[in-house]
Design goal:
alpha+beta; Glycosyltransferase; 18 helices; binds 1-deoxymannojirimycin
Length: 479
């Protein structure tokens, strides 16, 4: 008996995936995710209905601006639809259509409004065919357009939805370059090229200002086109700029985007990729470097960077994707939930919060998808959506069970540490597990959606026929 105990211990130390095998069945897990979604949604409905977000500890609401823009309902709607919550989805849709107006004298952050509201409205329109959602999206798109009227074509960060007045002349690649999926889709659906052209120009203007070695920095002035911060990385403020280069290449079959992606990923791997020794085998990470010299400036990585395995996998680089996912998971496991940032040399936490972020779950879902893609490819043939790599380019064999178990472990930790009596709360500190009074709408749009899709039957959403915007709103190429 004692011998058996020791054997188990050895197995659990040296075989992390064996450690994860406290298996629940996939249907049961999908059911649990759906119930937890409803738990959080009901908390929002009870204490914050009609407002942007629930404050889960004080049980009141938070609005981003002086008037609500229904951030949580719009962000949550397509997840409800995918989860088959028909009545809830129908009443939420009616509420949005009757109550959401963008004719408001408020100055809003273009990037956040685009990824959450424009993206949410467009994907729910595609899932329901309800033209009222497309009308709302078009009205919003028209009101956001003034952001692009800068001397460089790079967008200002804020715009007043009623007056069109802009402000915020220093932006970052993520805010400037994460607009084309939404504006491009709006363009195709409304037959108004202006949306595509302006958002694409913003993406190209960032790329055109890359350094001689091909990297971009963190902050840039939209009037002068000069970088004000030359720190280069794949983390917050740059992250989804790279994501959109690849995704727009696929969604729109845009060859400029494909070229920009191909050039960018080469230098990301050259200058930002890093290796550490690791206990069992070398680990890969992506750190910071100066955009002009390529010299390493920081060895930090965090919850936001954990989107990158998904992007690598989508690009066909399953080898690096799976290695980096192991690093992200190591970061999660250190404290039983991931911090905003660590130093990967020491594994010390450098930013301790956890605002309910989805990225690591998103990457788990992508890797699970590609781990089973070989079978699907044999059954169905290649993807119908552009020249993506639904047949993985790498020959590396991924184990789908590994990603199921990883997802299950993370879901259990997530519920254990973030669930409250009537919602879900961010953590101030992943070491102490102290909670924060915040439940951002991406919990519904992304975190629950990716957990659900990881466990739900593949027919819930045909991965190969959609591109997720950075807020996890799936967009189909219907044009
Ligand atoms: C979301 O709003 C989006 O995923 C964005 O790209 C990054 N931050 C949050 C989630 O962490």
């Amino acid at each position: 008996m004692r011998k058996f105990g020791i054997l188990l211990l050895i197995v659990s130390i040296f075989a992390p995936s064996a450690n994860l095998r406290a298996a629940g069945s996939r249907p049961q897990l999908a059911h649990e995710v759906r119930s937890e979604f409803l738990h959080a949604w009901n908390g929002y409905k009870k204490y914050a209905w009609g407002h942007d977000d629930l404050k889960p500890l004080t049980k009141t609401y938070h609005d981003w601006y002086s008037e609500s823009l229904l951030m949580t309902p719009v962000d949550a709607l397509d997840t409800m639809i995918l989860m088959g919550l028909k009545d809830e989805a129908k009443s939420t849709r009616e509420y949005i259509v009757k109550n959401l107006s963008f004719n408001k004298d408020i100055s809003v952050q273009n990037f956040e409004i685009t990824i959450r509201l424009l993206g949410g409205l467009l994907s729910s329109y595609q899932l329901t065919g309800d033209a009222r959602l497309l009308n709302l999206a078009e009205d919003l798109g028209d009101r956001l357009l003034p952001v692009f009227d800068s001397p460089t074509g790079l967008p200002y960060r804020y715009v007043n939805l009623k007056t069109g007045k802009v402000r915020g002349n220093v932006t970052n690649p993520a805010e400037a370059g994460t607009l084309l999926i939404e504006f491009g889709t709006l363009s195709k659906l409304t037959h108004k090229p202006v949306f595509y052209d302006k958002a694409k120009r913003a993406l190209v203007e960032i790329y055109n200002r890359r350094s001689p070695i091909g990297l971009v920095g963190t902050w840039i002035n939209v009037e002068t086109g000069q970088w004000t911060d030359t720190d280069s990385h794949i983390s917050g403020a740059i992250d989804s700029y790279y994501e959109y280069l690849l995704k727009c290449a696929i969604l729109f079959d845009d060859q400029d985007c494909r070229r920009m992606w191909t050039d960018s990923i080469a230098v990301i791997n050259q200058y930002l990729r890093d290796e550490t020794k690791g206990r069992m085998k070398p680990e890969i990470w992506y750190g910071h470097a100066d955009m002009n010299t390529g010299k390493r400036t920081a060895t930090t990585y965090g919850a936001l960077d954990a989107f990158f395995p998904a992007v690598l996998a989508l690009s066909g680089d399953l080898n690096r994707a799976s290695l980096l996912q192991e690093s992200s998971y190591k970061m999660w496991m250190k404290h039983g939930i991931e911090p905003e940032e660590i130093d990967y040399q020491t594994m010390e936490v450098t930013a301790p919060g956890y605002p309910l972020r989805p990225e690591i779950v998103e990457s788990t879902y992508y890797l699970y998808h590609y781990a089973t893609a070989g079978d699907r490819f044999r059954e169905r043939g290649p993807s119908t959506l552009g020249p993506r790599t639904s047949r993985p380019q790498s020959s590396k064999k991924l184990d789908p069970d590994h990603y199921q178990q990883m997802g299950q472990m993370m879901f259990r930790d997530f519920v254990k540490h973030c669930r409250t009596d009537e919602g879900y709360a961010a953590l101030k500190n992943v070491v102490t597990k102290e909670k924060a009074d915040s439940m951002q709408s991406f919990l519904f749009a992304e975190t629950f959606k990716y957990f659900y899709l990881l466990f739900a039957p593949p027919k819930t959403l045909d991965f190969d026929k959609v591109i997720f915007n950075t807020e996890a709103h799936p967009i189909k190429r219907t044009w």
